[in-house]
Every structure is written in structure tokens, then in C-alpha cells.
Design goal:
Blueprint: E1 4-11, H1 18-27, E2 32-35, E3 40-45, E4 61-69, E5 72-81, H2 91-107, H3 112-151, H4 155-181
Antiparallel strand pairs: 1-5, 2-3, 3-4, 4-5
Helix pairs in contact: 2-3, 3-4
Amino acid sequence: MHPYKKHYTFKTENSNALKTKLEHYFSKYNFLFEEGYENQFIFFKKFSVLDAWKINPLHWESKVIITLHNETISIRYSNEGNGQITPHAFDTLFTTFFKNLEVYINEAKGFKDCNLFAIKKAKQKIGIQYLIVIVIICVFVFFGNYLKEVFKIKALGYFFIVIGGLFSLKLINSYWINKTTS
């Protein structure tokens, strides 16, 4: 699966309390902080075996590198996904997340409600994608059972369950990768 990588930049006029604001913003979403070079801040989420079961894309393994140069903040973001559904499907969530960071740093406006709404929409999108996977698997199970009866080979039923799962995930992930990269 391809990791999601994005680069954001924005201007700031007040970089005095930048580190404090960044730590506050990312700590709300359980990111860990690692000290970078001068004027560089690194926030990350570690890989977890349970990533496949997390339905909030912000909880997947990811890394945010923020660099302050003059009055420009540069953000490099990468998200590894949950091993099933590509993080490219959640471009809107990640863009909203970093736009809200910009507003929080420059205007000191609240960000929780906007981010919560974007997270809720992302969770709904995950639910719909898993529903599509289940429907495609059911179609393959039906087809596999038909072939199992015709050819009298029991393993065909199991084979088509696996093929249905792999095919549906490949189809969904290809769709989202093509949609966000084109």
C-alpha cells in the first residue's frame, strides 16, 4: 500500500508561542512529540498491530515534520494507513486538519469542532468502504458456492472468499489513489 504524503505551507506573523501551540494542538489527538533541529518540530504516531481496527485515520501510523523558516511554516505529513484502506481516501480530513492548525496558530480560533466534524465524516467513509468490501465478498461467496457445486471442489468456496476480499480492497484502494493523485 502506498503511504499518503503531503506538504503544506503557510505564513505566520506570530511565532513566539509556536512550540506551545503545536504541542497543544497535536496532543489533543495523541501525537507524540520529538525534538527536531532548531526550528523543527516532529509529531508522530507509532505503528500498532491494532491499526487495522482503528477507524480514525488520525490514529494510524503517521509523522508530521514542521519547520519554521523566517515566517513560513512548512509541514511534511506522511500517513501509512491501516493496512487495509489507503490513507489517500482521507485527503479531505488531512487537509482540514492542517488548515485548522493554520487558523489556530494565526488567529487563535478553536479547532476542536471543525476537526471533530471532519473525523466523523472520515469514520463514515470508512464504514461505507467496509460495507462495499462485505458486499463484494458476498458476491464472490455466492459465485464460489455455485462453482463448488458444479465442480464438486469444496476448496473453491474458501478460495473465492479470499479472492473477494483481496479484489474488493484492491479495487477501493486503486480508486482512491487514482482519484487523489490525478
